[in-house]
Write a structure and sequence with these properties.
The complex is a heterodimer of chains A (about 260) and B (about 350). Chain A has about 260 residues and is mostly helical. Chain A has 13 helices and no strands. Chain A has a single domain, classed as MetI-like fold, CATH 1.10.3720.10.
Amino acid sequence: MRKSRLWSWFWIFIGTLYFVVPLLATFEFSLRARKGTLSFLAYERVFKDPAFWKSFGFSLELAVFTVIISVLLIVPTAYWIRLRLPQLRGAVEFITMLPFVIPAIVLVFGLIRVFSGPPLPLTDTYFGTTALLVAGYVVLALPYMYRSIDIGLAAIDVRTLTEAAQSLGAGWGTILFKIVFPNLRVAILSGSFLTLAIVMGEFTMASFLVGIKAFGPYMSLIGQNKTYESSSLAIISFILTWAFIGLIQLLTRGRAEGQMAGAR
Amino acid sequence: MNFLTLTNISKTFGNTVAVKDFNIVVEKGEFVSFLGPSGCGKTTTLRMIAGFELPTTGQIVLDGEDITFTPPNRRNVGMVFQSYALFPNLTVAQNIGFGLRVRKMPVQEIDQRVKEMLSLIHLQQFGHRYPYQLSGGQQQRVALARALAIRPRVLLLDEPLSALDAKIRVELRSEIRRIQQQLGITTIYVTHDQEEALSLSDRVVVMKDGLIEQIGTPFEIYNFPQTPFVASFVGTLNVLRAKVLDADKGLLSLEGQTFYSSEPLKQVRNGDVVSVAVRPEIITLVGGGAELNQLNCRVETVTFLGSIVRIQVRIAETMLFFDTFNNPHLVLPQVGAPVTIYFPREACLILELTRE
């Protein structure tokens, strides 16, 4: 018993080292911008760079739009599939998994090829290109968002809740916005933060469509040209991702319990 | 007055016939139960009244209005589900007021109605709680209040007590009946539990394989079953395979002993073998009177069940059981002892015929 416990701790220790050492090393390196002393100079430089805030803001905007469109598209779809077309679930799940199989580079070239000429020359304008990028991000976020929402729908008895609402006089709009969306709050939040994290760091599609205006290509450029700043950006990006995951945990704690119990 | 009429209703799912030629007229304020085993079509019929399923053929008329194809949200029909179906994101009060908000009732009226409903189900202090903070029984009471808050024309209950434990089930059963009588609301209740159906209903519809077997008061259903299925499904029975000796006199023979049915046996010839059902509660060990059938048998088991004692007896290869009320002065028969059992002629129900 004692021996197996020892081994458990040993493997936990090895795992921790594997994850923490590179992180600590990067962090320590990012503090060496000023010769002979440890400082946050690299971070100062990053935060003082207007391009950082511009690209960060731009990507955040794209992420918010991606989340809104994904939610509006996927929640009704997943709900309707569970309610009326359960035989299509397998096919839809397969489609939502395609972004894992098709590389982003293929997707972006496909988008550029289709939308760079008539009948929909979207790449000719700033708005068109940005819209195209958001559309691409919606596709990239599909597996995460659909999974989260589908799991959320599985936790509530969506058919009976729908029928209960109908018997009380509710139409489809009321059912969707007063019953389905509020009961999927936890699932939608989880999917949204994952989408946010993905969009903020996405490089391939952004670099081909908008270049360094987006945060991903900006980070890549800094990585190529500025040694210490690139390490500090890696740490900032890491903190951002963990902050989003932390937010999921924070916002879903307790509510998830209530939702599950209520759905029994 | 005909309030709810179902005429020639049938429903098929692919090649499966779920309900066939269903006809019933329900009076205003009546409590009708659909009783039957799983898959008999009772829930499908209820769902057609609610509007969740459309009939393949037939017509549903409610309060003079043809609602056969009316969407469920325009029927003003209250529904209570087996799984409660309370909205997890809303408090008890919000759940009860949901249908009223959908109807855009003034807030003050909603508050007033919610209070009335909470008082009706004796949960005045629970309005601010969420469904997951309530027990199963409390949740079902809230579901009932929610369905009643919209003042529905008909209240539909789909096995509302099935998910609850036995004690709560009995409590809530009387609560449902009390509320139904208090409000005088027409109610359709689906159950597979005969005790529930018999104790709650003004009339019971017994169903099997999508067809109505019998419609009647609980008294009629229990005491005068019209089909072998009703007789065997409702209550418990002793089934005796007896030979017809004299069909005109109703004379039957069981393992060499004779007994009578109350009436001449129709569509039966002398020499036929019939299944005769006798309810266990009608059999006694105390005899007397020429009108009583009597059979000599031997005691097999005596089981003490608290308020009653169940005695199993054997006549050659035929086993019978009957119950007797317990009392401190009761002299129980010994296992293996010969006894004579008595039952009235009217207690014999002829179930089916086997022609040899």
